[in-house]
Amino acid sequence: MRGRIRSIKPDIGKHEGLWDLGVETGLPVYQAFTMLWCYADREGRFEWRPRSLKTDILPYWEGDFSRVLDALEQAGFVQQYTVAGVNYGYVPAFVKHQVINQREAKSVLPEPSIELHVHARASQNIAPSVRVEVFARDAHKCVRCGISSDLTIDHIFPRSIGGTNAITNLRTLCRPCNSGRPVTGDALVADLAKDNLSMHDMQRMCMHVQTHGEGKGREGKGVGDASATRPAPKAPKPKGSKFVPEDWAPSDGHYELANRLRVNLERELLSFRAHEFKTPKTDFDRAFTGWLTRSAQFGTSSSSMRAPVYEPKPIVWKDGG
Question: Is 170 helix (H, G, I), strand (E, B) or coil?
């Protein structure tokens, strides 16, 4: 694969979704996604060849690059598609953020299907934490065919007809089941019927959730709506703590993460409970996830993140004392 010079905007360093994905998976997704732009053609397409891509993008990393691509794909940063039995990928946001030199050769890779473009755009704003919750709720299996590989997040009511990112409108589908779904018209109505749903269920399942890019403070305001004239009182923010609460315990997800990262959870849990954080925290589940990830990456959670161990100094007796 031949690398190309690309423009990477400074804002990518502040992309919360990309950062959260790296913390939750323990994989070098930030470095991989940034460099992947240099190995995509002028349309943002590339050959889905994990071993070859790893040689060019992360040559000194000893992990499985297919896991990195799968994580980026499930989070909507890249999309995989197949043409004539050959796997390809593309970056949905590539064309929007790149100004291509007109002398660069045209893409020789096949174009993704229209349906894949629609599903890719629909999934870009789903937070990584929501993806994790949906996959866990559906037992990491496609809810239609039951397989547990090549999984994606599907909007039951597509975004193209007004579907939202409400978790009740999201489910786990494998790629073949997802990419084969229609997104409009009578075909969509027939597809919904397979799950005993109709268009009348859309309002119930798509209760509004605000996502990136949507307007703030305009939802639900209209004639006869009391919220249009009297805003609802803000709920008080929960008080945080610099120490782990006594009644807090790691979840099954933490045990699975520790097992996957080959981290000694019991040892890390002792250090985590003894640690005093610099700022008060309210979400200790998330804090412990980050703790385990750092431990796997650096062989320790960080010298500044461990409780100090005090050892008594030996007494030295002076002669004649």
Answer: strand
Q: Count Cβ atoms below 10 Å from residue 55 Cβ, excluding itself.
A: 12
**Would you say the C-alpha torsion 86, 91, 94, 95 has a positive or negative sign?**
positive
**Residue 91, CA atoms < 13 Å, CB-side half-sphere:** 20
Tens of pLDDT along 106-141? 888 988 764 444 444 445 567 777 888 888 899 999
Helix (H) or strand (E) holding 77: none
Least confident of 26-35, 36-45, 57-66, 301-310: 301-310
Topology classification of domain 1-103: Arc Repressor Mutant, subunit A (1.10.10)
DSSP reduced 3-state for 151: strand
Spans of all domains in the chain: 1-103, 113-209, 241-291
Measured distance CA(320)–CA(317) in Å, rounded: 9
Tell me what the mean pLDDT of segment 273-285 comes to. Answer: 84
Could you report the per-residue pLDDT of 154-172, keeping only the tens digit for each? 889 887 677 788 889 899 9
CA-atom Rg of the chain in angstroms: 24
Enter the tokens of residue 64. Answer: 């499985």
Separation of alpha carbons 189 and 59, rounded Å? 48
DSSP SS3 for 174: strand
Among positive and negative, which fits the CA dihedral 105, 96, 111, 47?
positive
